[in-house]
Every structure is written in structure tokens, then in C-alpha cells.
TrEMBL record:
It is found in: Cell membrane; Cytoplasm; Nucleus. This is Abscisic acid receptor PYL8-like. Its main location: membrane. The gene is LOC104725832. InterPro entries: Plant_def-hormone_signal, Polyketide_cyclase/dehydratase, START-like_dom_sf.
Length: 201
């Protein structure tokens, strides 16, 4: 498991055992012999509702995913809806076809599966879940704010000619960029939200 982001700001009340429980509950993948899987964690200094407003947009992943230039959805945002994604230059792909597997607004869970495209990510599926946590405070008595623990996991076939480590490293690098961008945008929106609230008080 990889841990990224504002880890030092996170209240220790959300323990690693709780993270492991979230992973056990929401991020179980059936792994075949020729597949690899990994789980990444990002702590974001923004409340869940702001982060989820970005993550849940299956129809607009480019809102926070920097490698996506365009998305066209075929369907009505129901389970089974398919999106055609155009990938920016610089990656070994130009397009990806992805299907919505789960969109749970109560538990804040999104799952997708890649079903086509000119890339090597065969039988790729991912799950992303959001969990509220407290940011700041600690022993210094500082102000605490609502934060979000983001957990993203994936499973994918290992392409012929590559190792499991190489495949996981490549996918993890993409997800880390996405999660870093998600954190930056969410935290910027949270600051704007707080500023707006202060102005209306």
C-alpha cells in the first residue's frame, strides 16, 4: 500500500487499522495468476462532499485527471454506462473505453472497468472510495477541519514481456498523479468555499 499526500496533518484518530478495514471492506479484488494489484492512499485537506463532487463525475474525469483531454458518455450515468476517453499525448495510448461498474453516493464509492482502447491495460478495474477524517489539531490545539481519506485500488493483466512489478509501477504512477491533482483541486475548492462562507456571515 502506498501512502501519499498530507499524511503529517492527519489526526491519528483515523488509525491504520481503520484504513485496513476500509480496504478489506471495499477494495477486494479477485486476482488471477497473470494479474497484479495495488492499493494507494491519499489524504486530502477538504471535506468529503467537495472531493466526491469531482470523483463521482464519471462523465467528466478530466475535471481532475490530467492525462484525459476529452470524454464522451454513452448512457445515462447508470451502472453499465460506457465512456470513451481521449488520452493526452505523451502516454502509450490515445483512447480508452471504460464502463461504470458502481456509483454509490451514500458510501462514496466509484468503480470502473476498462473494456477497450489502444493500450495494454487489459482487464483493468479500479475502485475508489472516500472516507471522512479530521485534519489538523493534534497535540498543538490547532484548528481542526474536515478532511478526506481517499483509497484507490486496481487489478490489471500483466502484459506479455512485462513483470508484475513493472506493470504495477506504471499504473501506480498514473494513479498518484490523478490523486495529487484531485487533492490540489479539492483543497483549492475548499478554500474558496470557506472564503465564500466568511463573506456571507
Amino acid at each position: 500500500m502506498e501512502a501519499n499526500g498530507n499524511e503529517s496533518l492527519v489526526n491519528p484518530n483515523l488509525s491504520q487499522s481503520q484504513e485496513r478495514e476500509f480496504i478489506r471492506r471495499h477494495h477486494q479484488h479477485e486476482l488471477l495468476q497473470n494479474q497484479c494489484s495495488s492499493t494507494l492512499v491519499q489524504h486530502i485537506n477538504a471535506p468529503v462532499h467537495i472531493v466526491w463532487s469531482l470523483v463521482r463525475r464519471f462523465d467528466q474525469p478530466q475535471k481532475y485527471k490530467p492525462f484525459i483531454s476529452r470524454c464522451v458518455v454513452k448512457g445515462n450515468m447508470e451502472i453499465g454506462t460506457v465512456r470513451e476517453v481521449d488520452v493526452k499525448s505523451g502516454l502509450p495510448a490515445t483512447r480508452s473505453t471504460e464502463r461504470l461498474e458502481l456509483l454509490d453516493d451514500n458510501e462514496h464509492i466509484l468503480s470502473i472497468r476498462i473494456v477497450g482502447g489502444d493500450h495494454r491495460l487489459k482487464n483493468y478495474s479500479s475502485i475508489i472510495s472516500l472516507h471522512p477524517e479530521t485534519i489538523g489539531g493534534g497535540g498543538g490545539g490547532g484548528r481542526t477541519t474536515g478532511g478526506t481519506l481517499v483509497i484507490e485500488s486496481f487489478v490489471v493483466d500483466v502484459p506479455e514481456g512485462n513483470t508484475k512489478d513493472e506493470t504495477c509501477y506504471f499504473v501506480e504512477a498514473l494513479i498518484k498523479c490523478n490523486l495529487k491533482s484531485l487533492a490540489d483541486i479539492s483543497e483549492r475548492l475548499a478554500v474558496q468555499d470557506t472564503t465564500t462562507e466568511s463573506e456571507t456571515d
